[in-house]
Design the sequence.
């Protein structure tokens, strides 16, 4: 059974600092997705990573995928308050069209 | 495109009542997913459809839950009878799988916040 783990589960960081969120998964997959959820809102797609070595960047966020290590990272550069949200990674379950979501990382950026 | 549409956005009901949640996927999408989100259990996949056919309902918690997709533009999730432990946010999502394109990116609706008293 595919398991997706994120760490940390909760991250409190100061504005201007850098940090990385990790997403590990247990079985072979070469497709990984990152979503953002603001409090009381829905999930919004951030990045789609479709191959080993894929790297995507949007503003202060950069996501990468290492399928051999079964690891994706979401790197935050010079955090700002607007990045405060919960971030989920999700992995394609093998031979199905469904996604398995991680537990989420709640990010809080303070001044 | 209007995105995935869900109704109602909020529902408050009493234990034992029937609850029906509705979803309209993005036009042209061939997959539809129902999720439930709670603080305790996180985001759970309940059931998903491909071309209106249920593919995997292993996440449906019990017989009180049922889902239908009578056509490509409408799906319902019904709870009968409802219980307080069903209180959660229910999301509908849709996706389009294109031959030759590997992405299974899902697009989520705004959710229905259900409170069962």
Sequence:
């Amino acid at each position: 059974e595919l398991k997706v783990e994120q760490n940390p589960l909760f991250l409190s960081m100061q504005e201007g600092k850098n940090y990385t969120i990790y997403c590990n998964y247990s079985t072979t997959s070469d497709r990984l997705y990152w979503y953002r959820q603001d409090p009381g809102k829905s999930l919004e797609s951030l990045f789609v990573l479709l191959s080993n070595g894929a790297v995507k960047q949007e503003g202060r966020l950069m996501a990468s995928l290492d399928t051999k290590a079964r690891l994706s990272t979401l790197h935050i550069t010079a955090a700002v308050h607007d990045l405060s949200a919960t971030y989920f990674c999700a992995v394609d379950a093998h031979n199905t069209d469904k996604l398995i979501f991680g537990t989420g990382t709640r990010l809080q950026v303070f001044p | 495109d209007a995105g995935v549409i869900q109704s109602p956005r909020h529902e408050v009901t009493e234990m034992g009542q029937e609850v029906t949640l509705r979803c309209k996927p993005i036009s042209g999408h061939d997959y539809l997913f129902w999720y439930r989100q709670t603080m305790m259990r996180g985001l759970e996949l309940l059931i998903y459809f491909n071309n209106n056919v249920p593919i995997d309902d292993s996440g449906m918690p019990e017989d009180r839950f049922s889902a239908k997709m009578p056509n490509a533009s409408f799906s319902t999730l019904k709870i009968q009878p409802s219980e307080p432990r069903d209180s959660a946010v229910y999301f509908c999502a849709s996706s389009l799988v294109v031959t030759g394109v590997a992405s299974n990116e899902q697009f989520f609706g705004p959710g229905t916040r259900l409170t069962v008293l």
The two ends of chain B are 36 Å apart (CA to CA).
